[in-house]
UniProtKB/TrEMBL annotation:
Pfam families: Condensation. This is Non-ribosomal peptide synthetase. SUPFAM superfamilies: Acetyl-CoA synthetase-like, CoA-dependent acyltransferases. InterPro entries: CAT-like_dom_sf, Condensation_dom. It comes from the Bacteria. Residues 43-484 form the Condensation domain. It comes from Piscinibacter terrae.
């Protein structure tokens, strides 16, 4: 026998690792594979589904969570193969034939039989006077038509026939059964199945080991076993004292309730700027996502004057191999808190964003719904809780739908939806970065958001010019805008009636706008 004193440090560490590996592991849900849940009783919703189900009960909210798709199909369409492919996808994924009902006061999942098929309506427009106008009408109507989460179906479509070799396929899913990753899976499976069925071949897809309902049951088991306690503590500590609302300069006062109407402006970063940003990231061991998030946070701080802010960002949340081939709502949202200091440097900010991004990703398993409950911010119908701005980095390569003998093109449907005040969506494209800045039209004018997009590009250029530059030194206004801010906005002289006394002018204003704010001192204000 050897005493510990006779062993080297390396030998002692090796023995400790052997002893640790020999310890019996607690058979928790996280340590076990996801397995099929029993189907002889009511199945629970996942936490993300439960939140969307709750939101869908509120008037005017559910449509914001519709996912519409539209494709023009030019060429020889094998309608039978298309129908069989869509039916097979619905049979393959239980979540596409799932509905929700309330049992004992709580929502549960109900799964219909596999042979229910895809709800596809055939519409013949060949003899219509203006078929293109009808296509737009159907696209808008299909995208906006309400879903009945209890009766279903929650995926549906229309096949419009404009001619022997011209069709339009419209499909809409509710977000409660799908997400962005799922659209890529749907595209890939539709391509494979259509090709196979049009050639008289069998289904080429490998069987699924588990279904979405199995994931939901497993997720609930993890929560019931207390496995998410450490993650809960992290988010409680991280978001303690975070500001509940980011007050950006807006073109109109915030309405008492969100209407989710939106629009977007295109934003691009050229190759040279992206190369400079990547060089900055390489020196700091950071990613392009982190640099763009840092620039976005800095812009939001400049616009609002805030030094402490929270930005939301989506994550695919498919960190288990069993989940990768499943259609369903897996996406989670992380609340990233950023603190700004004009005296800190670009590398300081990038280091902070890197650290907090990595920490958040390590604690991404806790559903956003529970993060909100833990942080317990003030709730309001006027804005989303925890954060009102998002940054979505599109690093997922979504498959392109390819159908033999057909030329495909997009067909627009409803107007854009804005779930947040501002959402910046970017992804790499041809060596540069491209995307859009989506905005709530109830709050912002298009010209305002176009200026914001320009500000962001200038901030990123300033950041890339030197990692040790102070944040307070970074320029984000061009000469014309600086002149307008310093001179134009401070030119407050206005003509007034010089034959009246001050108190008479105030009385006249009070008669016209009695509740308007006249004086502000600190947190106190006085109306006319």
């Amino acid at each position: 026998m050897f005493s510990s004193k006779q062993l080297s440090v390396e030998q002692r560490e090796h023995l400790l690792r052997i002893a640790e590996a020999a310890k019996p592991r607690r058979r928790s849900p996280s340590n076990l594979p996801i397995v099929p849940a029993a189907r002889d009783s009511a199945l629970p919703l996942s936490f993300a589904q439960q939140r969307l189900w709750f939101l869908a009960q509120m008037p005017g909210v559910s449509e914001a969570y519709h996912i519409p798709l539209g494709l023009s199909l030019r060429g020889r369409l094998d309608r039978s193969a298309l129908r069989r492919a869509l039916d097979r996808i619905v049979a393959r994924h239980e979540v596409l034939r799932t509905t929700f009902e309330v049992v004992d006061g709580a929502p549960v999942q109900r799964i219909a039989a596999a042979d229910i098929g895809f709800a596809l309506e055939d519409i013949d427009l060949r003899h219509h006077e203006d078929p293109q106008a009808q296509v737009q009408h159907h696209a808008e109507e299909e995208a906006a038509r309400p879903f009945d989460l209890q009766a279903g179906p929650l995926v549906r479509g229309r096949l419009l026939c404009l001619g022997e070799h011209e069709h339009v396929l419209l499909a809409t899913m509710h977000h409660v059964i799908s997400d962005g990753w799922s659209l890529g899976l749907l595209t890939s499976e539709l391509s494979s199945l259509y090709v196979a069925f049009s050639q008289g071949a069998a289904d080429p897809l490998a069987p699924l080991g588990v279904q979405y309902a199995d994931f939901a049951a497993w997720q609930r088991q993890r929560a019931d076993a207390g496995e998410l306690a450490i993650q809960s503590a992290f988010w409680k500590r991280t978001l303690a004292g975070a500001p509940p609302l980011l007050e950006l300069p807006m073109d109109r006062p915030r309405p008492s309730e969100q209407d989710h109407a939106g629009a977007s402006v295109v934003l691009t970063l050229d190759r040279s700027l992206v190369a400079e940003l990547k060089a900055l990231c390489a020196a700091q061991g950071a990613t392009l996502f982190m640099a763009l998030l840092a620039g976005w946070a800095l812009l939001l701080g400049r616009l609002s004057g805030a030094r402490d802010l929270v930005i939301g960002t989506p994550v695919a949340n498919r960190n288990r191999t069993e989940l990768e081939p499943l259609i369903g709502l897996f996406v989670n949202t992380l609340a990233l808190r950023v603190e700004l200091d004009d005296a800190s440097t670009v590398e300081d900010l990038l280091r902070q964003v890197k650290s907090r991004s990595l920490e958040a990703q390590q604690h991404q398993d806790l559903p956003f719904e529970q993060v909100v409950d833990i942080a317990n911010p003030p709730r309001s119908l006027a804005h989303t809780p925890l954060f009102q701005v998002m940054f979505a980095w599109q690093n997922l390569q979504v498959g392109t739908l390819q159908l033999p003998e057909l030329t495909l093109g997009p067909v627009g449907g409803r107007g854009e939806i804005a779930k947040f005040d501002l959402t910046l969506t970017l992804g790499e494209a041809d060596g540069g970065v491209a995307g859009a800045l989506e905005y709530a039209t109830a709050l912002f004018d298009r010209a305002t958001v176009q200026r914001y997009a320009g500000y962001l590009v200038r901030i990123l250029k300033a950041m890339s010019s030197g990692a040790r530059r102070m944040l307070g030194e970074l320029e984000w206004l061009d000469d014309q805008e600086r002149e307008r801010v310093l001179q134009g906005w401070n030119e407050t002289r206005r003509p007034y009636e010089r034959d009246r006394c001050v108190h008479e002018l105030i009385e006249a204003r009070a008669a016209m706008q009695g509740q308007a704010t006249a004086l502000v001192q600190g947190e106190h204000s006085l109306s006319y």
